[in-house]
Amino acid sequence: MSYSILTCFDILLILTLLWLGWRLLSTEDIFKAVVLFISFGLLMALAWVRMRAPDVALAEAALGAGLTGPLFLAALRRMKRIHKGERRLDSDENRGEDHEADPEQTQAA
Amino acid sequence: MIFLHADTPAWMLFPIVLPLIAGLLCFLFSRRTFVIALAAVLANFLVVCLLIYQLLVFGSMRCHMGGWQPPLGISLRTDGPALLMLLMTAVTGLAITLYARGYFSYRIFDPPRAGRHQRQQRFFWPLWMLLLAGLNGLFLSNDIFNIYVTLELIGISAASLAALSGKPASQLASFRYLLISLLGSLTYLLGIVFLYRSCGVLDLDLLQNLSNNGPGVRAALALMSVGLLLKTALFPLHFWLPPAHANALAPVSAILSALVVKGSFYLLFRFWFEIFPSTITTPALNFMGTLGAAAILWGAIQAMRQHRLKLMVAYSTVSQLGYLFIAFPLARVDGSAQLWSIVIFMALAHSCAKSAMFMVAGTVFLHLGHDRIKDLSGVRATLPITVFAYGIAGVSLMGLPPSGAFIAKWMLLSSSLASSQWWWALVVMSGSLLAMIYVFRVMSRFFVIPEGVSFIRPAPFSPLLEWPALALALISLFLGLVAPWPLHILSQGSTALAQSFPGGLP
Amino acid sequence: MITTLLYSLTGLILFAMGLFTLIVHSHPLRKILAVNVMSTGVFLILVATAYTPLGQGEIDPVPHAMVLTGIVVSVSITALALILACRVQETSNLDLLEKSKQSKARKESGA
Amino acid sequence: MTWGQWLLVSILLSSFLPGIIIFALPEEKHHLRTILNLCGSTLKIALILIMDTWIYLGHSFEIRMVIIPGVELLLNGDPLSALFATLSSVLWLLTTVYAVGYLEESPNRSHFFGYFSLCVTVTIGIALAGNLVTFLLFYEMLTLTTYPLVIHRGTEKSLRAGRNYLIYAFSGGAVFLFAVVWLQAVVGPTDFSGAGFSPSFVDTHSTVLVLIFILLIIGVGVKAALVPLHGWLPQAMVAPAPVSALLHAVAVVKAGAFGIIRIVLDVYGAQNLLLLGVLPLLAGVATITILYGSVRALQQDGLKRRLAFSTISQVSYIALGMSLVDQPLALIGGLVHLVHQGLMKITLFFCAGNLAETLGIHRISEMSGVARRMPLTMAAFSIGAFGMIGIPPTVGFVSKWYLGLGGLAAGNWWVVLVLAVSSLLNACYFLPILTKAWFGKQQGPWPEELYVGRFETRLMLLVPPLVTAFIVMAAGVVANAQISPLAWVRFIVREYGL
Amino acid sequence: MRRTRNRHKRLDGFQRLFLLLVICLTALLGAILCTIHGPTPGLADAVAQFQEQSGVESPVTAVLLNFRGYDTLLEVMVLLLAVIGAWSLTEAPFPDQITEISPVQMGAVRLLAPVMCLVAAYLVWQGSHLAGGAFQGGAILGAAGVLLLVSELPWLRSTPVFSLRIGLVLGPLVFVGTALFCLFFTGDLLGYPEGTAGWLILLIETACALSIGLTLASLFAGGRPEDEVVLEHKPVDQSFNGERS
Predict the structure, then answer these.
(1) Which of B314, B448, D387, E194 could potentially form a cystine with B377 if both were Cys, beta carbons 3.0 to 4.6 Å apart?
(2) Quick one: which H or E segment has residue B148?
(3) How far is the C-alpha of D158 from the C-alpha of D156, rounded, in Å?
(4) Closest Cβ–Cβ partner in A28, A30, A67 for E142
(5) Does residue E231 fall inside a structural domain?
(6) Looking at the domain assignment, is residue A94 inside a domain?
């Protein structure tokens, strides 16, 4: 009888996972997708526990959700800032590193 | 204390561990990185020579990591093909290391962008050393999951190297390269999952002995092959290769074209003909051959149409990789021993010739500031050695005698004619002719004397830029003359190979 | 057994969804997300393979170790890919800016 | 290694090493370069003469190197290779002298002479090749080493010519490679043994063997400029005169012709070819080429172009001789023409180069009265032209005589007809030049008078054509003597037991 | 963005074809998966058999750091490679603006960071017998690093780069060093001498956890520190770039 309860839990978990996965891949807003991805990761941790893989669950919770999420958010923020056309004035490397395709400039140098 | 003797299997650890440590040190220290890298590459070369000696004297060896026998532990093994690939990596790597030194010191001399060039050099060495470790690990590994880790090691370092030039085009290409290589590794990993599920072991020897032929193994082999094909850039999965290779720095292009694609190809070949020979079918072989033929022709035609030297060389890589696959359908006649010699020869010759060619392209780029093919006139007089190297490398790419590629093409032709599959022979011949056209299209530009110039002074001589390319080109040219040696090494320790196909495939 | 199968199929579907998104969508972040979903799918199949219900024997730890390795690798590649994606945007944006500036300057000098 | 093997190696090295050193020499050291060149070529002649002597005395030597089963490098000194090697080395010495004079003060000489030496090395390699694989090796290398010479001027026109040359030559090479591999797959190793493969294969594989023969002839026919594979040759005239001389008389065209000889005599063997019945095919192609080349030569005004078409026509005499392989006399005619045509054609090209270099004359219409300005050059030219027409006592007559006799002996009256028509045509395109040069009146100043001095032109340009012209006469006069090309060819034919 | 939306709304021909292909392949692979669930032993028994000798109680840790320690060695390299790659690409971006950090947030950081370090240490320690280990501990450390980075603590920017590099390389170096040490003592790479396995594994795990934490935090920072590449205007080495005579 506990078997059937477990199976019900399994099916519920799987459906949620699939739904989250689908949403995060298809939602139009990238930010929303990232948030969904974090929750997907947390749910995955649950799935790992269910699979009797506590090591993987810990790693998933810490790495998958805990670090990948912030990484995505940071990248998103960085890209948005680029999108606004904001420019950093400090480093020379950002000033178009493509001089090499430009013969005049190289020869002048 | 255990001391290393000539017959100690532990020697085979050094080609992996030495570059690994060198990579760490190169990252840790910002000075003398070249010296560290050079020491590692030289030591690697010596150890590989020792390993070959070991193979010739004591035969194929296994080295068990941590003393754990498979299936529990990971093992490395040396055999003929693996050692030849190691040798190829060591020789090409040595030349590339020297060339990279010349390349960077030439560029750093250019004050306005010295900072950027300094940074490129700063990160080139650790990335290259770790890539070398990954490649050596890949060739030696005998564990299917360990191969996955080495693949990732190679993929990440290769993508980082490809982005090193900092040009937007190179970064975009590198991003795609990273994703593709990731996709390839994931597909490969999925294959491992299927394999583990059906066989329950990860060691290649055990997998070979199981000779499981069920649908799980078939699916696994298909998945792994697709993943590796993505990384090998076989037509039509080659789309990522030309931009990534052509936009990178010249030493990086040489590494990517000469070594990285060979790694995944080597695996693919090994899986097909050594580990799972009973799984493959004639239609699959013919399919691969067809793709290879398409790659030869398509790559060569694209190479002919390019306006930039590096792009041309990159497309030529696409074309040359096709030759490796066109050998597949010939397995039905010759068994895998002959096949190994074809592909190994092809790989060796191509690796040397192609890295020489990318070096030439880089040197020309450094001197002219561009690599537009139509404006290359007069280079013959400015960089005579470089142009000579280009010519010789071109001869090798065309497969003219006595280059190593000629030997490979000869074997291809005779196998295909002997098995009355003459259409493969026709493709090989037309591929050579197309290669002639694209090689000499550039060559003739080198020879043009610009209008109104009677005498061109040779450029300042930079030995480290010019000699490595020439040396590699010469090696690829004379590889054909010393063919008995590689064949001898190849026949060593691959007795299992010969037995696995007693009378050829069904 | 049914549990193993259920989770394996889920992993496979996740892999397929990720693959489809990776090829079809063009936004770099979405591509990276897709790759992450794919890898999660593969890991799920692998762990499900090792699963044995409680009290029916030892769990095979090798796939778990493999998945741990895989997770770490995938995190590092994700981080690298994200930074690379940012760089692509930065440089191409700046490149566009430079170019428009140059063309503007050319126009002005021409006028 | 035995001394004979050392001899073979040193014959190759005697031009290879100077070539490599010349590449490394700086541009300015032209004296050192000249000395190197001359020493190398003299040494080579000496070595080859030693080899000839020993071959005549019945020794034979070979170097064999097995690369993979089926691919062997084999260098072999036999009478036939001695013939070609001697011709090449003698003409190389003369051409070197000529080239030194011709290229005085022009740029990129170290480059030029480097490839020049390599080119001769490769030609000698072709002569010494002991099997089809080795022949193929040197055959492809010949294309590579001559290409930089063809495009030496670096102009767009020369690049175009070079491209065409490459496409023709490498396509031929590819066909040849294909045929060689196929032949090996059918009959096994293809050493130049003198007898050809076992006749038993003819019964079992006759269609395939015919096909392979056609492919092989196409492969070498590109370099031998058989119609319709001749397109590259007239275009390659943009190269400097020594190069043209080399291409036409010594290296490229001759390599093709030599290939035909090897295939007919050594690879297939006369008996097998007769059994296969492919010789009429070769005869047909040769006839068409002879007549077509002559007719086209008639239409040309450019002196070098006319000579080029004349080459196309003349080289096919060799093919014609080979197609009558069962007739020893015709065989002698064809073989000896290998030498004779080289001597005559190199004389003509030297003279054409002299005219261009001294007076800037490139066209026949500009040649009126030129003999009064350059009598010695035109005398040499006339001897060469008479040889081409086949007037006794020049060597051209000897070749045609033997070919004709051979044809008659076989009852092939058409051979004589072809020879007659071709000689007539030769006369038609050479005699007007001669009359114009000797008896015409100078019309206005020369196009571009570049040299005024004690002699009619630079001494180094003048001597080589005089020497070759002398040989053209002398070899014809003493054809029956102990030492002459003809005598050696008879020796060869004896060796082949025909 | 707009382009993505458009594409998303309606799939074009190629995409539909691809969808079909993916569905077919998935179905095929699923079917194969269903057929191969047969009883394969896996390596559970082998691991259990040698668990005693591995020096740790947790089977996963035993596989990770003993039986298949070589994999883990390479994997640690992969992590380091990601940092090298990231550093080679770009500098760490500057924050939008230096905002005053609220005392509440500061307090939270003051409280959380040490606790996280403690948790990390505990995870590494318990890795030998329960779930946990270098990766999990390192991840927690990395999270702590992220927390510090987000709070824009000024002293973070003034950390000498060389020490950062040492920290990053420490784990891999200790790992390789231990592996070589074992090689010279037992003749096997990572073949721990009798009785020392537990301690050596703990050593490796501790070093790796530190490095992994630093690595993850560096990856979060998004690029190399500012003064990573110091300009050296040294003349080109004459021995390598001599004039052609």
Answers:
(1) B448
(2) helix B144-162
(3) 5
(4) A67
(5) no
(6) no
| Residue range D131-141: mean pLDDT, rounded | 93
Question: Do the Cβ atoms of B175 and C63 come within 8 Å?
Answer: no
Residue A75 falls inside a structural domain: yes
Pairing of β B61-64 and β B75-78: antiparallel
Q: At residue B179, what is the residue type?
A: L
pLDDT at B183 over 90: yes
A12 touches chain C (CB under 8 A): no
**Given pLDDT bands bounded at 50, 70 and 90, which one contains residue D494?**
confident
Which residues in chain A have Cβ-Cβ distances shorter than 8 Å to E90?
93
What angle (nearest 5°) sits at the alpha carbon of residue E18, between those of residues E15 and E22? 140
ipTM of the complex: 0.88
Comparing CA positions, the residue from A41, E38, E58 lying closest to residue C59 is E58
HSE-CB for B24 with a 13 A CA cutoff: 24
Q: How many domains does chain A have?
A: 1
What angle (nearest 5°) sits at the alpha carbon of residue E163, between those of residues E159 and E165? 110
Integer-rounded Cα Rg, in Å, for chain E is 25
E238 and E166 Cβ atoms separated by less than 8 Å: no
Contacts of E91 in chain A (CB under 8 A): 91, 93
Q: Where are the alpha helices (DSSP H) in A1-102?
A: 2-26, 30-50, 54-59, 68-83
CB contact under 8 A, B2 and E179: no
Residue window 155-194, chain D: list those with CB within 8 Å of chain B. 155-156, 159, 162-163, 166-167, 170-171, 173-175, 177-178, 181-182, 184-185
Smallest Cβ–Cβ distance between A67 and the set E8, E123, E139 belongs to: E139
Closest CA to E96 of A77, B382, B366, D185: A77
Residues of D in contact with B484 (CB under 8 A): 66-68
A in contact with C (at least 3 C-beta pairs within 8 A): yes
DSSP of D386-409: HHHHT-TTSHHHHHHHHHHHHHHH
Residues of chain A with C-beta less than 8 angstroms from the C-beta of E141? none
Max mean pLDDT among B3-7, C103-107, E89-93 falls in: E89-93
Residue A57 inside a domain? The answer is: yes
Residue A63 lies in a domain: yes
Q: How far apart are CA B302 and CA B433, in angstroms?
A: 14
pLDDT at B494: 54
In DSSP notation, D192-222 reads --SS-S-THHHHHHHHHHHHHHHHHHHHHHH
Q: CB-based contact (8 Å) between B496 and chain D? A: no
| Preceding amide of B236 cis, omega within 30 | yes
Give chain C's domains with CATH numbers. 2-110 (1.10.287.3510)
Percent of chain B with pLDDT over 90: 61
Least confident of B428-437, D42-51, E144-153: E144-153
Domain-embedded: residue E8? no
CA distance B263 to chain C (A): 19
Q: Which chains lie within 8 Å of chain D at 3 or more CB pairs, if any?
A: B
For residue C59, give both structure tokens: 């769990």
User: Given a cut of 80, is residue B315 above it in pLDDT?
Assistant: yes
Lowest-pLDDT range of B129-138, D447-456, E170-179? D447-456
Q: How far apart are CA E164 and CA B419, in angstroms?
A: 62
pLDDT in tens, B392-421: 999 999 988 889 899 999 999 988 888 888
Closest approach of A105 to chain B, Cα-based (Å): 9
Chain C interface, Cβ < 8 Å to E: 1, 4-5, 8-9, 12-13, 15-16, 19-20, 23-27, 30, 45, 49-50, 57-66, 68-69, 71-73, 75-77, 79-80, 83-84, 86-87, 90
Asked, for residue E170, whether it belongs to a domain, the answer is: yes
Set of chain A residues whose Cβ sits within 8 Å of the Cβ of B173: none
Cα Rg for chain D, rounded, in angstroms?
21
